[in-house]
Amino acid sequence: MAKLPPELHESPSQTAGPYVHIGLTPIFSGIDGVFEEDPGSRMINADTLGQRISVSGCVYDGNEAPLADALIEIWQADAAGLYPSPREDRGSADPNFGGWGRCPADLATGEFRFDTIKPGSLADTDGSRAAPHITVWIVARGINIGLHTRLYFGDETEANAADPILSSIVARERIDTLMARSEGEGRYRFDIHLQGPHETIFFDI
Amino acid sequence: MSSETDQHAYLPRDRDWQPPALAPAYKTSVARSPRQALLAFPTTLSEESGPVFGHSMLGPRDHDLLHNFAGDGASAIGPRIVVHGQLRDQSGRAVPDALIEVWQANAGGRYRHHNETYIAPLDPNFGGCGRCFTDANGHYEFYSVHPGAYPWPNGPNSWRPAHIHFSVFGPAFAQRLITQMYFEGDPLIWKCPIVTAIPTRQGVDSLIAKLDLDATLPMDSLGYRFDIVLRGQQQTSFENRSEGL
Predict the structure, then answer these.
(1) Do the beta carbons of residue B127 and residue B69 sit within 8 Å?
(2) Distance from CA of A186 to the nearest CA of B (A)
(3) What ipTM does this complex have?
């Protein structure tokens, strides 16, 4: 089965720019009455299964200045480790969980926060088992193409040690940049550094 | 890696086709571009899956920027346009039921945003946001005004070409894309460092919507066509054989 070259090029990415909120979180940007709610602003409801967690953080540039105009999206499995997606063929995901969240950084401080549930972990069809993780995507003015990374949980030592992606990272000293730090009571901290000695590992996926 | 995984794997992003993270002429990219190499690995279920949006989330005027912020009986000021196109993946297959979100400046080049300082006035009847889903054949359509060009603080006299921002979801989160649509014939396109960060002329051309008289609504709105391509899955000669026979 020879691999064939793709017929088409992907459309080139362009920066989301400073006014990304108008399109993606219009209510946050003060545009009322067009959409009922900002998509991705509510990830869980009272019936969602799993441990409630919050993930807070900030995106920093190469001068360690917070990005006050970034927008972050996350995508994750439910508490059982199942994705609420047609692509999921290992079981049925929690109908009260959509798996996707979107949060604009605070316009003054750059802080973002997601209220969600801790994702579970389920063996893939090939037998490999990823540690609980959340896919993170960052766009902003000055970012020409959205940056992908993963959030792992710093308190999942055993699962992290067995994770196939984490295990593949040669620069062991940088793995810590993918770890959300537990601050107790389900609160996690995940800061993202675009450059510098603590530059987050970004993924080419 | 199992055959199951291979079957769903997405093609790697072509980093020679996409704009680089660091494009020094676009000054803001200097401090906001990663310096370390990206970590590459074959896509996993985490990237091959993605959120599902229901059509029920749409209101009746979500795709009509002329009216979705306007007062009763009013509409936005400016040249009226209808923008349409097809969403496909790299193998040429239509992507149905995809959420497309758009945002733009008004006809004077002014955005409705806290951080906006341009002297051009707001249009009280224009919000600047809209959204729609692609149909079963990957087609989408929305109504708006032709946005104006506007100055921005990159160089002493930098102007953005007229553009509409697009955010697109495919079935896989790996396909997540934000881009900008430009307008055929705009001389500012080739002077913009955000545009020219794209390495090839062919790549830039693919973001320039063409005037489409066939889509034009007579005595109403000029039509523009803008096709979008998302990342595709790896194809093999075996999978495609039926087409050749």
Answers:
(1) yes
(2) 23
(3) 0.96
Which of the residue ranges A59-73, A136-150, B225-239 would you say has the lowest mean pLDDT?
B225-239
Instruction: Give residue B142's identity as a one-letter amino acid code.
Output: F
Check A8 against B232: CB less than 8 A apart. yes
Beta carbons of B192 and B165 less than 8 angstroms apart? no
In 3-state terms, what secondary structure has residue A121?
Answer: coil
Using an 8 Å Cβ cutoff, are A191 and A179 in contact? no
Q: How much is the pTM?
A: 0.96
pLDDT band at A64 (very low <50, low <70, confident <90, very high): very high
Top residue of A14, A61, A106 to mutate, by most chain B CBs within 10 Å, is: A14
User: In this structure, are strands B129-133 and A100-104 parallel, antiparallel, or unpaired?
Assistant: unpaired
Closest CA to A77 of A65, A63, A87: A87
Closest CA of chain A from B218, distance in Å: 27
- Closest among B76, B172, B169 to B129, alpha carbons compared: B76
Residues 6+ positions from A7 with CB-CB distance below 8 Å: B90, B91, B92
